Amino acid sequence: RDRALEGPNAQEALITALRVLRPVALFIPHPRDPHPDHGAAHRLCLEAWFSAGLRRVLGQGGSPTRPRVVLQYFINGWAEPGLVVDATRGYERKLEAIAAHTSQFGPGEAATRLNQGGAVGQVQARDRFLGAAAGVAWAEGFVPVGAPLVSSPSMFWA
User: Fold this and answer.
1) How distant is the alpha carbon of residue 10 from its chain centre?
2) Which residues contact 5 (CB under 8 A, 6 or more apart)?
């Protein structure tokens, strides 16, 4: 629920998911986001990522592992991205996914930046700006955690 992302149960659940699913890449919210829940989600993900690789930290399944690549994505905040990915082909789907969050973007009791279109417009402006800088229509920006080792660029191809 809102404002309740921290705690040992949340971390253990995420450690277990990382160990069972064994993803190569982990996408987490960027820490410089004005919403406190997004910062809490960043801290939770980073702690679970680190702990999932420790053999003495218990989870509910799987063996210790740690995704090789951790990429921070933007929600409301902004920082200079270290990686830009062409998002043109699936951009309409992204907008549909945003619109599906009716609790955030649907009509509410009070007018907010979210339910009046300001937030979606901000996302589109950012994605258009990053796309223009990369020479494509739309792009997603990411900030890597550390210097991720990518053994094959094909891990990013659809």
Assistant:
1) 17
2) 37, 40, 41, 44
Classify residue 1 by its DSSP letter: -
Q: Using CA atoms, how far apart are residues 87 and 91, in angstroms rounded to an integer? A: 6
Residue 60, token pair as written in the block: 């509910």
Give me the mean pLDDT over the 38-61 stretch: 89
pLDDT at 156: 67
SS (H, E, C) 41-96: HHHHHHHHHHHHCCCCCCCCCCCCCCCCEEEEECCCCCCCCCEEEECCCCHHHHHH
Decide: helix, strand or coil at residue 150.
coil
The first and second tokens of residue 53, run together, are 């690789």
Query: Which has the closest alpha carbon to 51: 10, 98, 1, 110?
Result: 10
C-alpha–C-alpha distance, residues 29 and 38, integer Å: 6
Q: What is the pTM of this model?
A: 0.85
Burial class (CB in 10 A: 0-12, 13-18, 19+), 60: exposed
